[in-house]
Amino acid sequence: MLVATEHSEAKPSTQDGFSSCKFCQALLESAKVVRNFNDNATHVDYERLYENYSVYDEDDESAIWVLTQDEINNGCQQHGEFYNACAHTNTDVHVLELELSFSKGKWKLTEFRKDTKNGERRSSFVKAEFLLVNELASKPGVGLGRVLDPQFTDPALFRQWKKVCLEDHGAKCPKKLTQLDEPLLYLIDTKQMCLVSAADDMAYVTLSYVWGQTDMLKTSRANVDKLREIGSLLKFEDRIPATIRDAIKLVPLLDERYLWVDSLCIVQDDKASAYRQINQMAAIYEKATLTIVASGGEDATAGLPGIRGTPNPRQLSPHLWLTPEICVAIRKETYHQTPWTRRGWTTQEDTFSRRKLIFSAGTVRWVCRSSIFCEDVDSPRNAPVMALYRERIEELYSANPFDLSLDVPDLSILSNLISNYSCRDFTYDEDIILALSSTLKAMRNAFPHGFVYGLPLSFFDYGLLWRAWGSGLNRRRGSHDDAVCPPSWSWAGWLGPIDSCPGSWSAETYMKNPPFRWSGPHRPPFQVMPLLKWSTKVTQESPSVPIPFQNTCYGYKTRFMGEKNDLPPRWKYKLEDPDRLHRHR
């Protein structure tokens, strides 16, 4: 039976009807397997348990139940609505059969489908995973479901996550890879409800959200003094969108006081000041104690579902009671299917935030550089990061700031960043480079000569050989006549998927052990040799100015390969070195 998710919910007293429904039987049998595994898990080897499920393991004792289409759509009122809550809604596919399995700590569904448009058979994971609700309050051996308030979140749990991170995560989460070039201008004082001048020693929380087309209160030169008056934000409350209002209410519940929000803490019509602040956005978010992420909203009016005291209650997925002791919860993975994850401006906010409190799909999760905690998942405190990932694909969407700050250039890291970023949406296409400027600035250790429209000067000819992934690129267009989008020779001038590792970019490989492993047999890359010298012009009639530092890494590589002898002073080429390295003497 389907019931609301409350502590006082009614539970079934019998298993009537289960004997005639094979899907409910499979759920019950698999739930017992999960419970038995958890009860007997005196010591869990998490590194082995949560390996990538696509890797074959002959010792893996998987439990699998396969059901036909008729056994799924059998009119059962017990599981009908429960299954609909986790199934896809694509009308162009027809479910052939369903596979329920428990393997490597994951209890999941796989649907095998037939595409009604072309008749091809294909399989895909349902965007949901089952969790056994931890009704016994026993220490879980694997992730179990946690009973949640159906309307409101629990700030005490958020404070607990924060405490664990601050006390147990060593130096990784506190470490900052960027720094502010100039001080922040303003912060929101959630106690006095006004803007205050920011000081270097003020700890603050940031908000990452989607603006959309919302007509909201923005700080300008005309109203900044008014907004600095105590209580001023209460007077303007009707002009502050729900997401920002909810964040202001949440900050004190996290034992913090100050909040940074771009629309209010940047003077929007002071172009010079605004540009300087936008150009250090990575450092602003990295310096923050944590970032509140409004992942699910289409715009700034969406709010943060579940914050008590706001007219914005959340909607949880239903639970299914199989017996009075066994309850199954649905866990949907929609974090990477939201407007926030598709927006270009949020890329560097996501990448550089050291700690994120993410509101998505009715539940909240904590993501820091050491762990992931989920509101609806009760997991062992000593479990490693991957023990809390419900789908491994999730880790691929955020660039690793530690990779971006490498001292040596690696185009595979840059190309992975670009591959994700190139498909992001912008209200104004001309913002694509500006919204990435702070990230490119953070990569200056590896690319000290900088970038031109997203192409690294040191690898300029390699960068020009970017290519589309498949087809469907569309030219980015300025929002008005004076707006300038990147040129067509840059990937940034196009909207669509870019090849994450084109052969021309991998051809610059010169490291014996690059950070990323090759997915298959790695053949020696072909060579790219610069043949031209590139110049720029202000106008068609103005004289050409050579682009400085173009392709300097090609010179370094040819020296490394022994093809040039003009080494820097006091360096020599060591012929007997099998790795053909240069040595300084």
TrEMBL record:
Q: Which residues form the Heterokaryon incompatibility domain?
A: 204-349
Stored PANTHER family: DOMAIN PROTEIN, PUTATIVE-RELATED (PTHR33112), HETEROKARYON INCOMPATIBILITY DOMAIN-CONTAINING PROTEIN (PTHR33112:SF12)
Q: What is this protein called?
A: Heterokaryon incompatibility domain-containing protein
InterPro entries, per this entry?
HET (IPR010730)
List, alphabetically, the Pfam families matched.
Answer: HET (PF06985)
| Superkingdom | Eukaryota
